[in-house]
Specification:
2 helices, mainly alpha, rod-shaped
């Protein structure tokens, strides 16, 4: 099913957030794979805790960036919806009143 809906353009901030979030997720995935395979024997004691703490912090950072991006998308969507409502209904009401000779 192919629809021709227009997509909301990404702002520069959203683009940077998505790139940074992708980098963090890639780093997390790489740390999980390397920590489970290559570095498994070397991660003992404090090294183990430190390594997986960094992995957890990177994951939390990626989650925070994703939530921030979600809020930006919601804000842009709400702004677009309000603008469309104003264009379709508010301007139409003003034009209708002017046709009837009423003051808007």
């Amino acid at each position: 099913m192919n629809t021709n809906r227009e997509k909301l353009p990404l702002s520069r901030g959203q683009f940077i957030l998505r790139i940074f979030g992708g980098v963090l997720l890639t780093a997390c995935a790489l740390m999980v794979v390397l920590g489970s395979t290559v570095f498994a024997e070397q991660l003992l004691g404090p090294r183990f805790v430190l390594y997986w703490t960094w992995c957890l912090l990177l994951t939390c950072g990626a989650i925070i960036i994703a939530l921030w991006d979600m809020l930006l998308v919601r804000r842009a969507s709400r702004r677009t919806r309000r603008e469309l409502f104003r264009q379709k209904f508010m301007d139409g009401v003003s034009a209708d009143k002017s046709r009837r000779g009423e003051n808007p």
